[in-house]
Design goal:
globular; binds manganese (II) ion; nine-stranded mixed β-sheet; 399 residues; alpha/beta; single chain; five-stranded antiparallel β-sheet; Alpha-Beta Plaits; Aminopeptidase; binds (2S)-amino(hydroxy)ethanoic acid
């Protein structure tokens, strides 16, 4: 297992931040460096390498039959304040599993495809899970290329600038039947329940919205309170009203993670405030209710002009019983304690469930922390997750 931990550490060194976290924003040089490192590991394992038009990276280990293949992987891009495990674990562990198979000399019945999807996080270019959305034909290449970051750079420009990031390959000649992803839980459940493995039964839905409040700037000292169109005041009222929704809709999680004032000066009334709303719910109807209530609140009459646009949306999903039972029996056979659970975070597996029978394996996150330099799982937990991944892969691929 030391090779696995070495590879994980090597990947974490690409984009390492002074605080020990990691930043490999999608389609940056560091993202490409991380993907190139994984491609090298796949090459060393003797796999056939393919890169598609958006930069999704695949490594193919041919099976002995033409039965539908098993795909296994995750992502290597991170949020700006990312940790060492989110995404990277699932890709590095998948490489380790196929390397182990190669070394054993046993050929799996089904072809195995290791996948590293681009732009799962969606924090630089939206929507998130973009690489798996493209792979599952839910976003066109044209729309993906046109996505802009906050500096106005498009994905198309970034791919033109970085030769070799994108390719021309497809997987059209392969029939793929399953997708399996090992990931850190990023939440507190496994640790608080003292379980080693999460057998993930599904993923809650996600809805991202950007709200813009337009008012009028003026002098903070001379402008009477009753003669203002203060975007700061109105956006604050809207944010407070939105933050009441989780009390109204059980199990709703609502986060206002980004707020930008303009001109953002101490003695000037704000004329523009832009903020984001991240809503999550495991039930599709309740997510729709939450979105309807958000729209109601944003349509309250105010002295400012309020508009909003959807940034991303992913339906809640239930995973394949076949994959869930492969994970459960692999964990049971290895003697790990496990719990069936729903994922709070979005993942490529929930996108790929639309085209493949999919499932996930979780390992604990210390303190339930993720998207942070504090993100941590022990070597024993990494090893346990990888063993379960290997066991489930053997079951699915007939290895
Ligand atoms: O936002 C999410 O749940 C994922 O980390 N992209
Ligand atoms: Mn992730
Ligand atoms: Mn993440």
């Amino acid at each position: 297992m030391s090779r696995l931990l070495e590879h994980l550490a090597e990947l974490a060194s690409i984009g390492e931040r002074p605080d020990g976290g990691v930043c490999r924003l999608a389609f940056t040089d560091l993202d490409l460096a991380g993907r190139s490192m994984v491609a090298g590991q796949l090459q060393n394992a003797g796999l056939e390498i393919r890169v598609d038009a958006i930069g999704n990276l695949f490594g193919i280990l041919r099976g002995s039959t033409s039965l539908p293949a098993v795909m296994v992987g995750s992502h290597t891009d991170t949020v700006g304040t990312g940790g060492r495990f989110d995404g990277a674990l699932g890709v590095v562990a998948a490489v380790e599993c196929v390397t182990k198979m190669q070394e054993s000399g046993r050929i799996p019945e089904r072809t195995i495809v290791v996948a590293s999807f681009v732009n799962e996080e969606g924090v630089r270019f939206m929507p998130d899970m973009m690489g798996s959305l493209y792979h599952s034909h839910q976003i066109t290449l044209r729309d993906a290329m046109a996505a802009l970051d906050s500096a106005g750079t498009s994905i198309g420009q970034e791919l033109d600038r970085q030769v070799g990031f994108a390719g021309t390959d497809t997987l059209d000649d392969l029939e793929i039947g399953f997708f399996l992803e090992l990931h850190i839980e990023q939440g507190p459940i496994l640790e608080s329940e003292n379980r080693q493995i999460g057998v993930v039964a599904g993923v809650q839905g996600l809805s991202w919205t950007e709200v813009e409040v337009l008012g009028s700037s003026n002098h903070a000292g001379t402008t009477p309170m009753d003669r203002r169109r203060d975007a700061g005041l109105v956006s604050g009222d809207l944010m407070s009203a939105l933050r009441q929704l989780p009390a109204e809709i059980e199990n709703l999680r609502l986060t206002i993670g980004s707020v930008t004032y303009h001109p953002n000066l101490v003695n000037v009334i704000a004329n523009r405030v832009t903020f984001t709303v991240d809503m999550r719910h495991p039930d599709p109807d309740r997510l729709l209710t939450a979105e309807a209530r958000m729209t109601e609140i944003l349509n309250y009459p105010t002295v400012c002009d309020v508009s909003h646009k959807r940034l991303a949306r992913t339906q809640p999903c239930h995973f394949s019983d076949t994959v869930i039972s492969a994970v459960q029996s692999a964990s049971d056979e290895l003697g790990y304690s496990s719990i069936k659970m729903i994922s709070g975070a979005g993942h490529d597996a929930q996108i790929l469930q639309s085209i493949y029978q999919s499932g996930m394996i979780f390992i604990p996150s210390r303190g339930g922390i993720s998207h942070s330099a504090e993100e941590f799982s022990t070597p024993e937990q990494v090893e346990a997750g990888t063993r379960v991944l290997f066991g489930a892969l053997q079951r699915l691929a007939g290895a």
